[in-house]
Structure formats: C-alpha cells, structure tokens
Design a protein that fits this description.
single chain; 129 residues; flat; mainly alpha
C-alpha cells in the first residue's frame, strides 16, 4: 500500500509568477494613449475609424438573441407549466407530452434561424437602397 507523502508548501517559498512586460494581453490592443492627449500615440484617424467600425459590428452581433436560447427557454418554461399542472391534479401523458415538446423544439430550431436570416436579409436590402 502506498503512503501519502503530500505536505503543504511553506508560506515563505511562494512567489508570484514572473510577468513578461512585452507580451500584450488578449484584451489589450497594444497601443497606449499619449500623455495628456487622450489619443493613441502615432495612430492615424483611419485606424481609429476601423477600430470603431469593428467595435460597432461586434456590439451589434452581441445584441442579437440566439434562436436556440429562446427555444430552450420555452422548453424549460413548458416543463415548469407541466410540473405545475401535475401538482394541481391534472394527469398528463408523459410520452405524448415529451414527443410534442421535442417536435416543437425541433421545429423552432429549424424555422427560427430561417426567419432570422430572412429578417436580416430584408434589413440589409433596405439599408442598401
């Protein structure tokens, strides 16, 4: 049989890990503002505009709710309603309810993105005019 030879580290032996100052972090763009100006040192206005456009596109993408999130939220809500109905004394055929719930969820996962794509395509067409 083996013995446990683990022991806690002494407090005086722990040291912080070294940090490489030349390496940029993922959230860091690598540019630093010039002192007192509020602008990036050596940056052109076209670079700023490109970064602003990329930021706006990212924010617009984040504002949209995913269809799968809505569908699974509805599934959970319907399961909760079913539990409440059973608690109230109603009898539910569980096999039929499960089949119906999965069919509705599948249709939602198929039709939802198609509708969202058509809406997005329609919005793109109106902005091009």
């Amino acid at each position: 049989m083996s013995t446990d030879e683990t022991r806690p580290l002494p407090v005086d032996e722990t040291q912080p890990l070294p940090v490489d100052a030349t390496r940029t972090l993922p959230a860091d763009t690598g540019s630093r503002p010039a002192a007192g100006t509020g602008r990036t040192a050596g940056a052109d206005s076209t670079e700023d505009e490109a970064q602003d456009e990329a930021k706006d596109a990212t924010e617009a993408r984040r504002d949209r709710v995913r269809v799968g999130t809505i569908v699974w939220g509805v599934v959970i809500a319907l399961l909760g309603v079913g539990v409440l109905l059973v608690a109230a004394g109603y009898t539910i055929d569980l096999e039929l309810a499960a089949i119906g719930l999965l069919v509705l969820a599948g249709l939602g996962l198929i039709v939802g993105p198609l509708v969202a794509s058509a809406r997005r395509r329609g919005a793109d067409d109106t902005t091009r005019r």
